[in-house]
Amino acid sequence: MFIPVYLLIQWLNKIGMPTFFRMAASAGLLTFLAIWLGGDHSMIRRPGESISAPLVVAAGLIMFLPTSRLVGAVQDAINGFPVTAAGRFVSTGMSFLGLVIGIASAVNAISLFGGPILDIEQTRFDLPSPLTFSVFMLAATVTFAITLHTKLVKLGWLVLITCSALVTYHLYTYLVGVDSGRANTALAALIIGMLSTYVAYRLHAPQAVFSIPALTFLLPGLSFFRGMYLLTVETNVVWGIQSMISAVSIVIAMAAGVTLGNYLMQYLLQRFAVPRNVPAEAAE
User: Strands (DSSP E) along the chain, which ranges?
Assistant: First the structure.
């Protein structure tokens, strides 16, 4: 299902289509395929097994969500660059608008042909065990890093950073409870920010090479999808805004945690680390 969407994205990139139209077309195709193939008369549906179209769409939205750009915008705002932050917020907002238009258009097109109806309540589900969650999120992180052409030697460090963040996330959730708010997200992002800054310093690589893929398991794709669907298709403004606020609060916690971790590790490196390309005796 994701292969046609990926090919569409590559073709739109090749012809130089702006991000807004790429987002709209990709989200529309993904939503259309998820609803159509997840229906009762789908050719790929096995008897006794259900395919949750909302979950498929929400998972696919992780490929399209400009979360890294939004995190960067929040980081610029935190670091005191309001003009750059404002530009990124506008660009990110247009990307989200493209996703909204694509999802709404696909749902309306399906309804015109008498296709199945998308049940938004299917987005409510019980979370898997921490081990299952961690294994699949690690696989998603590595896959995402490979698509960014990350070198093989850096993938091992990326897995280590992500594992540390996952352990922190689940340990805090276990100790405090599921009603821990956004503290578990912020704490995991803090670990990602610190470790990615340190590894980037040691390997002479950009910090974003490690921090952006490592944040994959924190992305609020499901909350964004619920909010966009409720606002555009079901026109439930109250619940839609609530879901969007929840998603944005997660992104802000991610950005704040990564930024704080970056600053803390930079201070520790400047305070205690031996300068690169300088012998230890000279540093003393």
Answer: none
